Amino acid sequence: MSQSESGPDRPGKRLRKREAIATEQTLDTSGTDSLLPTSDPFADRYGGTGWRRETGDSVAHGVAVRSEIAANDSDSLWRALVEHRLLTRLAGPLAGECFADVLAQWEEHLSALAPRSDWEQAAVVPRPSRDPAGSAELLRHAFAPVRVLAVRPADRLAAPGPATQPGVRIRPAEPADLDTAVALSLRLQRYDAQFGLVTLRPNVEGLLREALSEELRCGEPTVWLAELYGRPLGLLRIQFPPGTAWISPFVAVDRVGYVASLHVDEAARSSGVGGALAAHAHQLFDEAGVEAALLHHALPNPTSTPFWYAQGYRPLWTYWYRRPAVR
Ligand SMILES: CC(C)(COP(=O)(O)OP(=O)(O)OC[C@H]1O[C@@H](n2cnc3c(N)ncnc32)[C@H](O)[C@@H]1OP(=O)(O)O)[C@@H](O)C(=O)NCCC(=O)NCCS
Q: One matching Pfam family, short form (predicted)?
């Protein structure tokens, strides 16, 4: 469920562009969402080809960027190797109409750039979840809202879920638990791959082992196991500040916690184990002075979507996908 927010790294161009489009980078959050940042989290990626359409006081601005990673990069587990993103800013009552023009321009650009019918090429349009402008236009271009970055403010109250089964114990995973953590993560990876963004690479086990072995060796516990009388049945992976600096620009608070993974084995689901692990994460975040927790999840996932929203999360950014990018 975690994913990178990495983009093309072009420091030189980045600085020049920042000045040039200073006003474009300021998000108008007033009408949409108080938890959105006031400056555009994608601003450092403005460096690609851009289009702008205005009608009266409505405007659509889009910038196309391309990011590519290698198949042996751990981020390759969560995405296509090549992502073509359209970064947008829409405003005004006719924003959708303006956006339709920008999308048409981007399609032309994409068809010259992306090979056809290649599963490793995805087209992605991130949108503030509470700003519905442009949704119909995206659907017309065969995009679907597939991934969400969800947020839970620290003071959010959630109704209690199912009572945890007696005998369940939550404990930090240790280096000796590496095989267990890899096995549980693999099951999550296989489940999540059904929704089309998580990609099962031939080296998936090696990549997970490498990442988890590093996490298990770091001082602060970030990997937790739920056990029933000693039998592991749930896994939680979390990140604390400053390790969440990669994702914190996407929300309007300073101290951010990130839930990187939560998995409960199928036979143990719906008996409170997931809720107990989530409550544990929130408790640790509270102790660390976290102001908001973030996580990515696949919208069509029938277990995670209702679960997270019952835990007090709600959508902040919605990622519209088309994969392959060009048919
Ligand atoms: C999502 C997942 C971790 C939940 O674990 P779980 O142990 O089943 O969770 P719980 O038993 O605590 O809660 C599940 C049920 O209680 C409900 N629930 C949980 N908290 C609730 C609350 N505060 N109020 C009301 N209902 C609540 C859930 O909606 C769900 O309902 P259901 O059984 O009718 O479907 C588990 O289903 C799973 O591993 N899924 C596959 C992997 C996955 O998708 N992981 C998350 C990736 S983002």
A: Acetyltransf_1
